[in-house]
């Protein structure tokens, strides 16, 4: 390359709209509430949001995976609680899990909308 030739411009990454990014991250969490209406909606909702926006926003990629991991973990816990219905403790456990899940999803959605990374407790990390 000739030392006198101009340096080619470095391609710029498009500016990330932080409000849009935070909104989609919030949707990744709150879409899990679809599980109250649609069977397996608690997994399908976050999965759809994550698959659509993961390549556009790194924050949505992170929070979408977090939401998906939590919902898969909760599904496993629900199955265990259903089995424990035979011992009569499962009914209370199911109610506690549903309330815990609802509260955590709302808290995660609010935190994501503020741009804060949220980590759910008792989550098994399936999607990395």
What distinguishing features does this structure have?
4 helices; 128 residues; mainly alpha; single chain
Describe the 3D structure.
By secondary structure, the protein is an all-alpha fold. The chain has one domain. The chain is 59% helix and 0% strand. The longest helix has 26 residues, at 58-83. The N and C termini lie far apart (42 Å). The relative contact order is 0.16.
Strands, helices and their partners?
Blueprint: H1 18-30, H2 41-53, H3 58-83, H4 90-113
Q: Low-confidence parts, pLDDT < 50 over ≥5 residues?
A: none
Largest sheet: none
The shape is elongated
Measured by DSSP, the beta-strand proportion falls in under 5%
Distance from N terminus to C terminus (CA atoms, Å) equals 42 Å
Mean pLDDT: 91
Helix content: 55-70%
Question: Any idea what the radius of gyration is?
Answer: 20 Å
Structural class: mainly alpha
Q: How many domains is the backbone divided into? A: 1
Count of runs of 4 or more consecutive helical residues:
4
What is the H/E order? HHHH
What is the number of beta strands? 0
Briefly summarize what is shown:
The chain is an all-alpha fold. It has helices at residues 18-30, 41-53, 58-83, 90-113.
